[in-house]
Write a structure and sequence with these properties.
Blueprint: H1 4-18, E1 23-28, H2 39-45, E2 50-56, E3 59-64, E4 69-73, E5 79-83, E6 94-100, E7 105-109, E8 116-120, H3 126-129, H4 143-147, H5 157-162, H6 172-182, H7 195-214, E9 255-259, E10 262-266
Antiparallel strand pairs: 1-6, 2-3, 3-4, 4-8, 5-7, 6-7, 9-10
Bound molecules: zinc ion (ZN).
Zinc ion binds at residues 247, 249-250, 252, 267, 269-270.
Length: 272
């Protein structure tokens, strides 16, 4: 599933190609993804010019000329790509094709259909209402903020960091990497985190997310950006999907444990 760095990479790759373009026609080739695709979406987008873009957590949107946002969530397998010319979107999982005036198209491809596309106001959208701070927001996401959750929950620290209401945009890949750099095991209860652990997690979060954006995301499974290019951060993963391979710090074999139904990779020596 694309996480914050992948969604930000998609946004950055598409923004220069779609800003200033007007959607002449929106073709909806499937009745529903996570929510129905229908006339409301078509009315919201067709005939409007894209003036900018935004992102919050794992949601990205294109700002339309009326100030509303054309939102996308990639779900499990969504991919948004810009296609030059008129021959776009004949693939079986190409569910939405926006054809621009003057040619070219934006195609939303989603084999597993957990993705989303709606038009909504970014300032008031329910999609963003309960979302925690952005991990790179140094004011809102600091060690005191994270430490306060020690009194609110006994859940595992990994579950807490995966919760979009606590911090936005993190998923299984990046939380594994963050906990490795923090020296904290994924199953550690939040109540057993020291203030120092919380500070380490916040610092590691900023480091991992900034570095992953810089390397244009992780191309595990089939992630590609808006122009079909792979990311490069998968080559820098320290623990994710490395079960049995040597730790990059101490050479101990990386272990895997299931937390919240997701595989969690950690070093039994470096993480406590
Ligand atoms: Zn180690």
């Amino acid at each position: 599933m694309p996480e914050l760095p992948e969604v930000e990479t998609i946004r950055r790759s598409l923004e220069p190609l779609v800003v200033g373009r007007t959607v002449a026609r929106l073709e909806l080739r499937t009745p529903r993804l996570r929510v129905p695709l229908g006339e409301e979406l078509r009315r919201g987008v067709e005939g409007r010019c894209i003036t900018g873009s935004g992102r919050r957590g794992k949601y990205l949107w294109f700002v339309l000329e009326d100030g509303r946002g054309w939102f996308f969530h990639m779900g499990m397998s969504g991919r948004l790509r810009f296609v030059e010319g008129a021959d776009a979107g004949e693939g079986v999982h190409d569910h939405l094709i926006a054809r621009f005036a003057g040619g070219d198209a934006l195609v939303f491809h989603d084999p597993r259909r957990f993705g989303l596309s709606i038009v909504d106001d970014p300032a008031t959208s329910k999609l963003l209402a309960d979302m925690g701070p952005e991990p790179l927001d140094e004011v809102a996401f600091d060690s005191d903020y994270l430490a306060a959750f020690r009194r609110r929950t006994t859940r595992a620290v990994k579950d807490v960091l995966m919760d979009q209401r606590v911090v936005a945009g993190l998923g299984n890949i990046y939380v594994n990497e963050i906990l490795f750099l923090s020296g904290v095991r994924p199953r550690r209860s939040m109540v057993r985190m020291t203030l120092r652990d919380c500070a380490a997690v916040v610092v590691a979060t900023r480091e991992v997310i900034a570095e992953a954006i810089e390397h244009r995301g992780s191309s595990i499974s089939d992630f590609l950006d808006g122009i079909g290019q792979r990311g490069g951060y998968q080559w820098r993963h320290r623990v994710y999907d490395r079960e049995g391979q040597p730790c990059t710090t101490c050479r101990a074999p990386i272990k895997v444990v299931v937390v919240g139904q997701r595989s969690s990779f950690y070093c039994p020596r470096c993480q406590r």
